[in-house]
Each structure stands twice: as C-alpha cells, then as structure tokens.
Amino acid sequence: MTFDEERNALIDRLADRENLSESTEMALRSVPRHEFVPELKQAAAYSDKPLPIGEGQTISAPHMVAIMTDLLDLSPGDTVLEIGTGCGYHVAVTATIVGGEHTYSIEYHERLAKQARKTLNHCGHSAISLRHGDGRDGWPEHGPYDRIYLTCAASSFPDCLIEQLRDGGLILGPLGDRTQVLTTAHKSGTKLERERHGQVRFVPFK
C-alpha cells in the first residue's frame, strides 16, 4: 500500500475504536505522519505505536494523538500552546483544526526544534509558531491560551502554564512520576477542575 492508503486504513480503525470526532479524524487523515518520523522508521509510520525520533524522545502512537486531540475539544480559531514539539506531528494535527496562526509550540531540544521547523514548513505548516526553550515557562507573549497541552509527563501542571491559560480554558497532559495519568483540567477562576482519563506512558518533562 502507499503511505496515503496505510494512513487511511489506520485512521479507519482508530475512528471505529475510539469514536473520534469528525474534526480529529479529518486532521489525522490530513497530516502525513511518515514525513515526521526518521527515514529509517518510515516503514512503520502507520503502525499504531510510538517511534524514536532522537534525543531520547518519541513520536506518540497515533491512537494517543487522536485521544488527546479529542479531549482538547478544539475549534477553529482557538489559541493553543503545545509543550514538547518533538518532531512536530502532534502540533501539525492541532494546527489543521485551529489554524496554524493560532498555534504555538515549544521544544526543549534544539536539534529537534530545528528539524520540526523544517518538516512543518515542508508539510505546509509554516504559520505555526515554534521555538526552542523551557516549556515550564510557557510563552506568555501569546497568551492567554484557550488550550494548553503537554506531550511529556510532569508531576503537576506548571504554575506558569496555568497562569497563561484563560479563564474557562483547558489544560491537558500526562501527570505523575512512576505512574502517569492522562489528566484534563478546566480553569475556573483560581481553581482547576480535574478529570482523569487513564494510565499512560510518556517521556518525562525536560
């Protein structure tokens, strides 16, 4: 099968199994995951599993990107901050829904940030704002954000990120050290209303 055929077959399976929203399904079909993985791993690009991308990091399994995208409940025009660009695949999925000009991403590893920028440009996502830096500080210049999500595990949501989330906004990420739980939290004034969505395994926050 061609890469396009493999991608559509994978998304067909995920859409049935995870009951994906129409916008999530559309975005996953639109973004060529094989362009974001190292060349030697492209043959496995449409296997539903994480793959190494260097610097001890991974590209998340497609089903996890799908689940997180659905949990974010994104709408066109939402302003979104991603912590942990990695190879750029997840933020490309996000930008397909909300628009690249509304999407911001921070990557701790400079080499990954440079490669992600190159790949995103190649795939038509030059409007995404991407920088190399410490995700714990967020990106206050572009806040407040409607949605913030982490693609790396933290012991708790960093205070700076909560401050940069608008009232009524949502933050999502894997929380915990030995045991990680995918967690959403809606911001209501000075409070976070949390909901747990099952155990996961992500690389730790840098």
UniProtKB/TrEMBL annotation:
E.C. code: 2.1.1.77
One GO-annotated biological process of the protein: methylation
Function description: Catalyzes the methyl esterification of L-isoaspartyl residues in peptides and proteins that result from spontaneous decomposition of normal L-aspartyl and L-asparaginyl residues. It plays a role in the repair and/or degradation of damaged proteins.
Compartments in which it is found: Cytoplasm
Gene3D superfamilies (UniProt xref): Vaccinia Virus protein VP39
Organism: Halovenus rubra
Entry-linked SUPFAM superfamilies: S-adenosyl-L-methionine-dependent methyltransferases
InterPro entries: PCMT, SAM-dependent_MTases_sf
GO cellular component terms listed in the entry, alphabetical order: cytoplasm
Assigned keywords, A-Z: Cytoplasm, Methyltransferase, S-adenosyl-L-methionine, Transferase
Pfam families tied to this protein: PCMT (PF01135)
Entry protein name: Protein-L-isoaspartate O-methyltransferase
Ranges that cross the membrane: none
Catalytic activity: [protein]-L-isoaspartate + S-adenosyl-L-methionine = [protein]-L-isoaspartate alpha-methyl ester + S-adenosyl-L-homocysteine
Family in the record: Belongs to the methyltransferase superfamily. L-isoaspartyl/D-aspartyl protein methyltransferase family.
Matching CDD domains: AdoMet_MTases (cd02440)
GO MF annotations, alphabetized: protein-L-isoaspartate (D-aspartate) O-methyltransferase activity
Broad class of where this protein is predominantly found: cytoplasm
